[in-house]
Amino acid sequence: MKNISLLLVSILLLQACIGTDLVDDFVEAKIVIENPISSLKVDSSYQFKALYFNNVGKPAEASFQWSSSDENILQITSNGLATGMAEGESTILVAANGIFATLSLLVNDTTIIVQDERVAVLATVSSYPLTGNAILKKQGGKTLLEFDERFNTTSALPGLYVYLTNNVNTINNALEVAKVKAFSGAQIYEISEDISLNEYDYVLFYCKPFLVPVGNGQLKP
Quick one: pLDDT at residue 14? Predict the structure, then answer.
């Protein structure tokens, strides 16, 4: 009788996971400015870096072209070295492979880094609960993924893992962070790879044994 009960539970879990399975690798290609700033000091320089992600959300080689909307205020070289020329506002544009990204910034009396963390509001895409916030941040020279005290899901999931990704439909080309160690409450995971905060757009929760999405959240800003 015990063996039959275990078999029924396994079948129900399998059906629940398979019922939500999606395999779709395609996403729009994008460029991200890896190290944005909101202002640049007059007569100082700042080296911008960019990343190109192809249509499966994977980093790929690209030849970037940088430009400034007002070179009297801000000049930028072909390799992304910006110099503040005079006080005002200018927009940087970086392009590659037919797509582009922009960044508006002030030139004034100080250089200000835009952000040191991004936040995602988590939501389920399955029959299982998923709530709370995930925070991706730099702290003490480390990259951390933190779940706040409102984080909650279910212990019924067999092998729940968390990923960083640009495509919420698959774990292909995603960065595996860790197996979820607690199903509720605040917790922190250290990310072993050296990544920028802008490299991935989503936090993804996956039922790894059956390769199906459980829920996700988009990292903002």
Answer: 46
